[in-house]
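Priority: medium. Attachment 1 of 2:
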């Protein structure tokens, strides 16, 4: 069964399907430019990006909670996650901070850390481009280069996927900040971005699932 993050993401994408259906209902399906409907296309680009961002944050949180619950000991944690924990403990103002991870205290420390990361991302993670997504999964669950999973047949390489994501997120930014002054957005772009993000989310979720299973012996979902 799919996890909560995936279920929520799929439910959100129904909004995009409705926008595409509304565009077809009002403008028809014949070829040619539709006037007065571009607002639907722009809305769809903004929503797809928001749903992608939300999915990444949700699946990272779900993965961390799973690790905290099922990891047998701190020994099985990814080295990158251990390094981050070590640095945070070293930089802590209180000299007894290290004792918080004694015995099984590391589980609570790791769980509490998620909220701190979320607060920090409220300032840092405002554009879910490839670089920010890499940073999110590295900090949250110790996955290095989550984008290495972003590839599939028909010439979609890792670099091409990252570039494509960045361009669409940049388009979202232009729409949000410049409104009518932003570039024209066509229905074909919405449909392309929609299908692309669905595949990207599936690849990302699969990589997270494999990562978590390697740590705990239990997948996030089956």
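Attachment 2 of 2:
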């Amino acid at each position: 069964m799919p996890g909560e993050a995936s279920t929520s993401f799929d439910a959100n994408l129904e909004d995009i399907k409705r926008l595409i259906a509304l565009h077809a209902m009002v403008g028809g399906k014949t070829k040619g430019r539709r006037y007065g409907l571009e607002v639907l296309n722009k809305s769809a680009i903004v929503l797809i990006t928001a749903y992608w961002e939300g999915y990444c944050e949700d699946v990272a949180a779900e993965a961390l909670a799973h690790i905290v619950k099922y990891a047998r000991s701190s020994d099985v944690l990814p080295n990158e996650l251990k390094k981050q924990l070590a640095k945070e403990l070293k930089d802590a103002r209180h000299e007894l901070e290290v004792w918080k991870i004694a015995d099984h205290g590391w589980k609570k420390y790791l769980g509490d850390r998620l909220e701190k990361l979320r607060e920090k991302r409220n300032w840092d993670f405002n554009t879910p481009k490839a670089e920010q997504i890499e940073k999110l999964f590295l900090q949250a669950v110790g996955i290095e280069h989550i984008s290495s999973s972003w590839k599939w047949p028909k010439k979609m390489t890792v670099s091409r996927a990252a570039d494509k994501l960045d361009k669409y997120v940049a388009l979202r930014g232009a729409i949000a900040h410049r409104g009518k002054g932003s570039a024209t957005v066509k229905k074909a772009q919405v449909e392309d971005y929609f299908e692309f993000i669905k595949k990207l989310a599936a690849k990302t979720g699969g990589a997270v699932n494999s990562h978590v299973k390697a740590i705990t012996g239990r997948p996030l979902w089956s």
